[in-house]
Amino acid sequence: MVIAIIGILAALLLPALSVAKSKGKQAGCVNHLKQLALCCQMYGADNDGKLVENLPQGRGTNSWAPGNMKSFNDATNQTLIRQGKLFPYANQVALYRCPADPSTAGGLPRVRSYSMNCWMGSRYMETDSRPNGFRTFVRETELAAAGPARLWLILDEHETTIDDAWFLVTMDDSRPFASFPATRHQRAYGLNFADGHAEVYQLRDPKSQIVGAQAPAISPQNADWLRLKQVTTIQ
Questions:
Q1: 215 contact partners, CB below 8 Å, separation of at least 6
Q2: Nearby residues of 67 by Cβ (< 8 Å), 6 or more positions away
Q3: For residues 109 and 105, what is the distance between their CA atoms, to the nearest angstrom?
Q4: CA nearest to 29, candidates 139, 155, 136
Q5: Hey, where are the domains in the chain?
Q6: What mean pLDDT, rounded, does the chain reach?
Q7: Strand partners, 190
Q8: What secondary structure, in 3-state letters, does the chain show?
Q9: Judging by DSSP bridges, how do beta strands 114-117 and 152-156 pair with one another?
């Protein structure tokens, strides 16, 4: 009888413990993002108000966090993280990885879970993409056009799409969610903003919660896609 009661209690407690563990990892991710945002502000203070450099793979060297997470040699290479322009400020390798990220390479955890807004840190999206007048931001003073609290800087990217540290958002809707936000926080992802705060965005559309070969095409009217676009850049 006692054993049966213990079994029932354990069955009742396990889901609560699982949720608590998940919430703890989510809080850890948000803390990492807040620290990275603060480090970006410190970088700007030391570099004449410039945002830390952010370029797609093959378009520059020594950007904010070098390395391609789809490359076996890069995925666990902590040296690449240390070579990034942000590392003198965010100088703990663990800060670049979400505590809930399950991805590995060769049995070892990948070194990075986070990617930066492609409209921040370079003019690449203006000069190469030409997206109908949307703005890029390379200096802190430029953020005032929208308000730094309304522009995201770094977010938690899904383990199946993460490659370089450059998160693509096509404001012309040519490729909705070409880079995909993480779903590991109970179908939510964390992101920080240029003013230093961080938030958690819940993915509400069922089509936003399936990533990979079986993922349905994302409509430009997808609510989760529209929400991310609203805090990405301005015209």
A1: 207
A2: 74, 75, 77, 80, 81, 111, 112, 164, 165
A3: 6
A4: 155
A5: 2-230
A6: 90
A7: 200
A8: CHHHHHHHHHHHHHHHHHHHHHHHHHHHHHHHHHHHHHHHHHHHHHCCCECCCCCCCCCCCCCCCCCCCCCHHHHCCHHHHHHCCCCCCCCCHHHHCCCCCCCEECCEECCCCEEEECCECCCHHHHHHCCCCCCCECEHHHHHHCCHHHCEEEEEECCCCCCCCEECCCCCCCCCCCCCECCCCCCEEEEEECCCCEEEEECCCHHHHCCCCCCCCCCCCCHHHHHHHHCCCCC
A9: antiparallel
For the segment 109-160, what is each residue's pLDDT rounded down to a tens digit?
A: 999 999 999 999 999 998 876 657 899 999 999 999 999 999 999 999 999 9
Q: Which residues pair with 139 in a beta bridge?
A: 50
Q: How far apart are CA 201 and CA 27, in angstroms?
A: 13
Give residue-wise pLDDT tens across range 75-101.
999 999 999 999 999 999 999 999 999
Closest CA to 104 of 70, 79, 80, 78: 70
pTM for this prediction: 0.88
The tokens describing 99, both together, are 């505590």
Residue type, 191: L
As a residue count, the chain comes to 235
Q: Do residues 117 and 124 touch, judged by C-beta distance below 8 A?
A: no
The residues pairing with 193 across neighbouring beta strands, listed in sequence order, are 152
Of 67, 80, 77, 164, residue with least CA distance to 115: 164
